[in-house]
Design goal:
The chain has 523 residues and is α/β, with parallel strands linked by helices. 38% of the residues lie in helices and 20% in strands. The protein contains 14 helices and 23 strands. A seven-stranded mixed sheet has the order 16-17-18-15-14-19-20, with helices on both faces. Helix 2 crosses helix 6, helix 3 crosses helix 4 and helix 4 runs parallel beside helix 5. The radius of gyration is 24 Å and the shape is globular.
């Protein structure tokens, strides 16, 4: 068993550690061979120094150089596909195919290449020029960014490979990647390729650094450090709020994805038209990947009638008949069990076969719960407990007015979905429901389950708190996601040779869109 080094200032070095940990294979519950350090503040301090030292160089780097790094990194990832997929499979239990090899890794490569294209174009800067007043402004990198990756997407949201990483780099910032403890080896492989790509592109080698774990106290200290520009965090709500409290105390920008139950409203006409189809659609969405998606449909709202109750029974049967997936870790299994127990204590009734232990695998029984709308209104906070995994709660409401009343008590969510009759029979009810649901979710869907987030410039993977910390920003979709890690810089009467090239009259890229004297123009 070897203790893996950390990556600081372009070198793989022995950590100044206060302990170590091993990743666990959730499909076997057996620890994996390598050991990873718990860094002390000395490691964190050195990484911050190195990131701060190269921040201005990156901020001034041209988009072509940054784009060249991101493209080279993407190509190196593709070349190391087999090893990355094997490592992630061992650390997370996620299937090799299609999930890791055919879906998540290609998505990750695509994200990096889209970020490269955005860096080259510079359009994300939103350059604005008032030539009469000689005032010019646009977005620039905010400085070193700490990225905390989640457990459920080791590639596409990884701290040294995912969307936050790509956005921060595209804005011209160094990244301090804090690996998720569920997949440290996967993150290490990404960091190895990032370092090689940095050297090829001629960017500072401290542009990407990697730490595996630190104490909670040092995490809070990192969040408040003046050398740090911003934080990107995806993960558990409890830990995220601790970081948010620390960052907010010093005015540090922190962008969090915390929790979401993603309400789905099934209006009666839709159920009448295609109830059996919706059993399949909902069950597939809820149980895919053992439900370990931030957009998993965790709350379903229906009218309480015979058709709805039959539909719920059919879904419960489908849950019981479907194989249970492998959960990402023992902590995910324990948290899911605790959340289900809390929902039951609040009045929800189990419609599926209770959980039974699988001592050689991290898993939990597919679980469907049901509660009356009147009970939900009495215990709305407890009944919104996020059960991260293969579980969902059905709320049976007396009428559409009660569905609206339930929605009015919901916290902010990433997504919300309304299914309605294709013949227009539900249109009046749709209008009533949509009016309240729209402001409580970042992404509104019609006749489509929320699982899956397209990498599109129009995508909003965000939402009102506590889905995220800032409802005006998205974690997916370029150029929108880049703005989180930037600041608006204004130049008032600054001499032309002192301006960034993209704000000058003669040196801006010919293809770059700029807002000049009240009109968008290229060049």
């Amino acid at each position: 068993m070897s203790l893996q080094p950390v990556l600081i200032d372009g070198a793989w070095v022995a950590a100044k550690s206060s302990g170590s940990f091993q990743a666990l294979n959730p499909a076997t519950r057996q620890p994996l061979a390598d050991s990873y350090p718990v860094s002390t503040w000395e490691d964190v301090d050195q990484a911050l120094d190195a990131a701060a030292a190269c921040a201005d160089t990156l901020r001034r780097a041209d988009g072509e150089t940054i784009g060249r790094f991101l493209d080279a990194f993407a190509d190196r990832i593709a070349a190391r596909k087999d090893e990355l997929v094997a490592m992630a499979n061992a650390e997370t239990g996620l299937p090799v195919a299609p999930r890791l090899a055919d879906v998540e890794l290609p998505r990750t490569i695509n994200q990096l290449k889209l970020a490269a294209a955005a860096a080259r174009s510079g359009d994300w800067r939103q350059a604005t020029i008032d030539s009469q007043a000689n005032i010019r402004s646009g977005f620039i990198g905010i400085g070193p960014v700490a990225v905390f990756g989640p457990n459920n997407f080791p590639f596409a949201f990884g701290s040294a490979s995912g969307g936050d990483f790509a956005a921060a780099i595209a804005a011209g910032n160094p990244v301090i990647a804090k690996a998720n403890s569920s997949h440290p080896g996967t993150t290490r492989l990404f960091a190895e390729e990032a370092l090689a790509a940095l050297e090829d592109a001629g960017l500072p080698t401290a542009t990407v650094q990697l730490l595996y774990r630190m104490s909670h106290a040092d995490g809070e200290r990192l969040a408040q450090d003046p050398r740090l520009g911003a934080i990107g965090y995806t993960g558990a709500r409890s830990a995220g709020l601790v970081l948010k409290t620390a960052a907010d105390a010093v005015g540090k920008p922190i962008y969090l994805e915390l929790s979401s139950i993603n309400p789905v409203v099934l209006l009666p006409g839709a159920l009448r038209e295609r109830g059996e189809e919706l059993v399949e659609e909902f069950s597939g969405s809820c149980l895919m990947g053992a439900g370990q998606f931030c957009t998993n449909p965790g709350l379903v709202l229906l009218l309480d009638d015979d058709a709805s109750r039959e539909w719920v029974s059919d879904v419960a049967l489908r849950f019981d008949e479907s194989p249970r997936g492998t959960l990402l870790s023992t902590s995910v299994q324990e948290s899911l069990a605790q959340s289900v127990a809390q929902l039951e204590q609040a009045g929800a009734q189990r419609m599926t076969v209770p959980n039974s232990d699988e001592p050689n695998r991290c898993s939990y029984a597919n679980t469907l719960l049901v509660v009356q709308g009147t009970q939900f209104l009495k215990a709305a906070e407890s009944l919104q407990t996020e059960a991260f995994g293969n579980e969902s709660l059905v709320v049976l409401c007396q009428d559409v007015a009660e569905i609206v009343a339930v929605i009015e008590l919901l916290e902010g969510n990433l997504t919300g979905c309304i299914y309605s009759a294709r013949d227009g029979g539900d249109d009046a009810n749709y209008d009533v429901v949509e009016a309240v649901l729209r402001t409580r979710v970042g992404r509104l869907l019609n006749d489509k389950m929320p699982t899956g987030v397209a990498v599109s410039p129009a995508m909003n993977h965000g939402g009102p708190f506590p889905a995220t910390g800032h409802p005006g920003f998205t974690a997916v979709g370029i150029p929108g996601s880049i703005h989180r890690f930037s600041m608006l810089a204004c130049y008032d009467a600054v001499r032309p040779h002192r301006l960034p090239a993209w704000l000058t009259d003669s040196q801006a890229p010919a293809s770059m869109w700029r807002y000049i004297d009240g009109a968008w123009r290229q060049g």
